[in-house]
Each structure stands twice: as C-alpha cells, then as structure tokens.
Amino acid sequence: MAFDKKLLEIVACPVCKGKLEYDKANQQLICKADRLAYAINEGIPVLLENKATPWNEEA
To answer: CA quadruple 51, 53, 41, 2: dihedral positive or negative?
Structure first.
C-alpha cells in the first residue's frame, strides 16, 4: 500500500508538533526540527517517539 501524501496535511511530529516531510526513497516521514525519521509501514506512518530513528540530512 502506498503512502497517501494527503496525510501530510494532518499529521505532525509527535515530539514538537511540527511539520513532517515525506522521504519517498526511504519510506519515512522526517522532522527536520527534531532530526527524527518515522518509518512508514505498508502505507501507515508509525508516529511513535520511541520508534523514531535519528535523521541525518547528509545520509
């Protein structure tokens, strides 16, 4: 199942409540403010702070 980009209008980072960006190549949502990446599993974003991974812009 593909991620529906319309979700970006309503989802927010669970840590800072900021905007998330879609990383299609890695199938994750990125919070640049907190430098965290949230996985997307079967089209569903896993927006749990304890499941987030550190995000590095250069990676």
So the answer is: positive
